[in-house]
Amino acid sequence: MMWKSRFRSKRVLKNSASSILGPFWMLSGNGNGARILLYHSIGKQEKYDAIGLRISEESFTRQMEYLAGSSFDVVSLPSLIENLRDGGITVGRRTVAITFDDGYRDNLEKAMPIAKRFNFPISLFVNCDSSRQVRSNINNDYWSKWGYLSMDEINGLASATVTIGSHSFSHRTLDCKREEIYKEIQASKEVLEKEIGQPVTVFSYPHGIFTDVAKQAVREAGFLGACSSIMGTNNSSTDLFELRRTEISAFDTLDIFKKKLGGYYDWLGAFQRRKFHKK
Ligand SMILES: [Zn+2]
What we know:
- By secondary structure, the protein is an alpha/beta fold.
- It has one domain: TIM Barrel (Alpha-Beta Barrel), CATH 3.20.20.
- It has ten helices and ten strands.
- The chain has helices spanning 2-27, 57-69, 77-85, 106-117, 128-136, 151-157, 178-196, 212-220, 254-262, 269-276; strands at residues 35-39, 41-42, 54-55, 73-74, 95-101, 122-126, 162-166, 202-204, 225-227, 246-247.
- Strands 1, 4, 5, 6, 7 and 10 form a six-stranded parallel β-sheet that branches. The protein has a two-stranded parallel ribbon with strand order 2-3. Strands 8-9 form a two-stranded parallel sheet.
- Helix 2 runs parallel beside helix 4 and helix 7 packs parallel to helix 8.
- The radius of gyration is 18 Å and the shape is globular.
- The two termini are 34 Å apart.
- The protein binds zinc ion.
- Residues 101-102, 167, 171, 206 line the site of zinc ion.
């Protein structure tokens, strides 16, 4: 309970600070650029999910409806990154990509049918370990009760509208020893490519944590870019190996979702880099 109220008071603090800083940030033009949305899970909300990783189908549907009805251009993550890299003029404030971290089964069962209804491409960042463990039933981490996509399901999902990306091999934080960082990144790419039979070009840092070595390893492995968990938008001057994302939580009302798209909370990104980028 203590845990929950601590998160609640953090949210209240964030919202009141945003009511002052948000409009300033937006007026300064910092909101220009493409936005990458970060989701985890879609489905029935659970009491133990104090950080709001799981969003109800109803909220997710309303959010997709809003994107579709407000002339947002929802593009695949690889094409968004290619556009940024090539200085594309098509990437602007209303360009959005949708991503999911961790590879939960509900991405297939709940999120996919909704995204499909709107013809929205999505990217799923999966860990090799979690997805392999489905086969042997040895999942025991906290969130594993939601279930992970199996490699067969991942293979079936990979298509023109579903991009499979790597979220490392084991989901460990990538601030470990150099060799281990390289192994996590390279092995995940190799295994996933072998499983799905096509190139895996996008990466997302587990727990949002990255170091300069991790960025270099992702680049050397041949990925187009890597997603961080730092809030904000992306333009042609953004480092493609620490792309900004906008995390959507179960506590976001549709009004907050709209504000997040408008850049109201992007000021947080200025502080978050210190938290996520490790020496
Ligand atoms: Zn994760």
